[in-house]
Amino acid sequence: MQEKKGYVSFVLHAHLPFIHHPESDDYLEESWLYEAISETYIPLLTIFQKLVDEGVNFRVTMSMTPPLLSMLDNKLLQKKYINYLKQHIELSGKEIKRTAGDERLNKLSHYYFDRYSNDLHLFKDVYKCNLIAAFKHFQDIGVLEIITCGATHGYFPILYVNEKTVKAQIAVGVQTYERYFGRKPRGIWLPECGYVPEADKYLKEFGIDYIITETHGILYADPTPIYGTYAPIVSPQGVVAFGRDMESSRQVWSSINGYPGDFNYREFYRDIGYDADYDYIKPYIAHNGVRVHTGIKYYRITGKTEFKDYYNLQWAKDSAERQAGHFFDSRNAQIENLSKYMDTPPIILCPYDAELYGHWWYEGPYWLYVLFKKIYYDDCNFELITPSEFIDKYPNMQVATPCRSSWGANGYSEVWLNPTNDYVHRHLHVAGDRMCELANLYPNAKGLKKKALNQCARELLLAQSSDWLFIITNGTMVDYAKKRIKDHIGRFTKLYYQIKNDEIDEDFLKDISKKDCVFPDIDYMIYR
Amino acid sequence: MPRKTKEQNDLELRKEENIEKTTTKKAAKTPKKATSTTTKKSSTTKKSTSTTKKATTSSSKATTKKSTSSKDSDKKTTTAKSETTTASSSTKKKTAASSTRKRAATTKKATTTKKSTTTRKKTATKKTSNKKEKVEVVEYYDLPYRYNQTVVKVLAQTPTNLFIYWDISDKDRKNFEKKYGEHFFENTRPVLIVHNDTIGYSFEVEINDFANSWYLNVADSKCDYRIELGRRPITKTQEIQDDYIYVSTSNEIESPNDHILFNKEQKMVYFKNVKTGEQISKPISSISFIRNMGKIYNIYDLYKELYQNESIEELYDLSNPSSGNPSSR
Hints:
The complex is a heterodimer.
Chain A: E1 6-14, H1 31-53, E2 60-64, H2 66-72, H3 75-98, H4 103-126, H5 131-140, E3 144-149, H6 156-159, H7 163-181, E4 187-189, H8 200-205, E5 210-213, H9 215-219, E6 233-234, E7 240-243, H10 246-253, H11 272-275, H12 278-281, H13 313-339, E8 347-353, H14 364-377, E9 382-384, H15 387-393, E10 396-399, H16 425-441, H17 447-463, H18 466-474, H19 478-500, H20 506-515
Parallel strand pairs in A: 1-2, 1-8, 1-9, 2-3, 3-4, 4-5, 5-7, 6-10
Antiparallel strand pairs in A: 6-7
Helix pairs in contact in A: 1-5, 1-14, 3-4, 13-14, 16-17, 16-19, 17-19, 17-20, 18-19
Chain B: H1 6-12, H2 18-22, H3 25-29, H4 31-44, H5 64-79, H6 86-98, H7 104-110, H8 114-129, E1 151-158, E2 161-167, H9 170-180, H10 184-187, E3 188-196, E4 201-206, E5 213-217, E6 224-233, E7 245-254, E8 268-273, E9 279-283, H11 287-306
């Protein structure tokens, strides 16, 4: 048996922007949530339960962002998700008939039929439509640590021009967490890992112990951390920062030999939404007839070729197991090497988008399951740990200010500030200033004015979501992102003038409060 | 590099009118308010130059709501041509936008215009058939063209690239013209002065009056920067005798660091127990620290070598914006 010399900490960042359109069924973007539930959140809950049932002691950390929590808690979206599942069950039922002549394909049709049926059963009967409670359960039994995030994933390095708006992102993030998990969060996932030292005082004010930064957030810290990313540092203001480990990240993400590119894994881009006959698939694609992903995918990556072979569930599992073994051995070797140079046990922090697991990398949750099981049963020199547990165990850390950084392309702010989206920032800044102005002009408002002021705060927060800027840079669904920015800035500005002129339009307020029904407990006084 | 995004160019064609666009019922009912908002508006928009199509570019999903509103915006742009007509046009806009709402019929009458008739008729029919349904608010917004405030803001895009945006309020513009003559803005050119307050140097960049934002390359990362907006006379006139006229200064920012610092002058390493708050310091000269640190940072160099030829390709479709993580591409 090897002696334990270090730790590995998995942090999965679960986030989707707040997309809620009670006014229409035509918004394709709403399906991001349903896809993520079926492909990531339910599979993760399933593997957590399986590990618990099998007596495997594991640790994992997840950030669940306030917009995601709000959507998971939303009755209308829950209902729409059930419809989504019913449609997919119907479609995979048709697929079973359609593929009856091909044994391999038919097996896959059955697989999808069973999978969506199982999702429906789990969602309705087991989780009672409440996935938040399902995740909370694992936090309560001590295997999962859930952390919070900025209220709407607002990117701090752009917002901090007005620090109050950063403070509000943190405050609402913490409040939302408390509402759903009944206690304060110890950690926060800084939206896009966007770190600015100016946020530290607010993080402390709201009881945050730690943050996650990109690798150079630690490596370029001041003064230089002596253990690199293998030990957390603490900022002069008292915020602990864990840095992303480069090696383990690359193993999963690398475009050359990253795990998700294995030839046996499911090919994301071959979907019957695009492949099937148009008339046949029409009821299951976008309402306006545009082909979209349905989630039913029959092919494996196969290789760098256009000719794709059918997906084979067993082969995919074999690859996941082999790669879990590789990751396991690599961490063992990495920790063996590092522990020679360090006074405290090294920690390898592995942060990923939660949606990578299952949605992008279909076999990801299974890979995680196998890995966690191996770490528990196989002989190795490390254990899984959460950042909080690590802080409690090894509270002595070097004092250094992390580097201003993000996990976006090239490590700074280019993704959220570039010629495609820089026209937005002045509007975000002015709206932020105006919100502070309102909070100072009308402290402790009552009745309708209070409602209007709170809605103003919601509109501002929704406009600040980093997702819109990201989508514009990325070039897909750009119209939607631009519309969202215009809508929220527009609603905010309109309400701003209505409040100042003491002419609040109740119907309008009611209507937008219904659409943008995020953060029911918000108090605009946070902007004071 | 001087630049204006397409959006900005587009936006120039607009005014800060989103308030009116959807302020429907009330505005129409109380023309007083309509006028007052309009006054505000016209004062904010000195540049109501001619515009055309533009407003409809912001399309997205095809919803019924949408089609109504784009018509609405078409109207808007046409009327935006002349400042003097804004008051009445904004009422038109309001009316058109409100047409699907209850009680719209009354407001409609009050402000009948040729342009909006078609839209109104259409939506009015729809309206009557849904009479018992809830009030539906039809919305369409454009971003305000400007906020009519004197402002200079700077953000760090990268450790050595700063993004600056600015504006000068109408009031300040008038004050300059009062002081330096009515052709002040024609007789001077705008400049940005970059102050590096950490190292203590400044340099000047000539910009132009067509831009309202700029990307600037700076030499030094991890430094405090402040940007000053000012003007230099093209030719000195009787009124303009100064070499430089100050306009406004930005917020101050620190540009991010972009390298491992390895400060040789640092003598001690400070540790803190985050549970007890107790702080201890250890001399950096301790040999093991230096040796180990070298080993640890060598590991990073090794990774850099290993992955130097790798560009992180777009492995995944990022239409699901779970994050901006480049690796998730």
